[in-house]
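User: structure tokens for this one?
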Amino acid sequence: MVSFKNRYLVFEVALDPNKDVATDDPIIITQYNVSKAIKDSILLNFGECGFASSLGSFQVRYVNPITKLCIIRASREDYQNVWAAITMVRSISNCPVVFNLLDLTGNSRACKNTALRVDELKFEQYKLMVGPNISDGVNLQMHNCLEKIRTLDN
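Assistant:
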């Protein structure tokens, strides 16, 4: 039996700092939005052949809408094309974004550890920024996101 060799990329999605969150529509980062933006970028920059070859094991495994952290899986042969396409993504749902690579690993366990550490730190920063006004819904959503990372499997 042959096992597929994958690479896991942990990215932070930085939204446009000039966007007025109070007056503009909120941007919700979802697995679908991120996946569509990356696939469109792969198709645009590498053509149909590059698109087809990278779709074999490409998957957006996890997206946290609060901390804007995402985990992407790609095959070992095509992860560089996926990474290059991700750096060329400039907008998601007509909102300018920039992807920042936090970690590149060869197994899901190391990826989970990095994502948990970063998510916990970013959520602490979010709680300090919001102050005592943080709602129970946000706390519950963040707890659910952390549990989802812990249960990620191959």
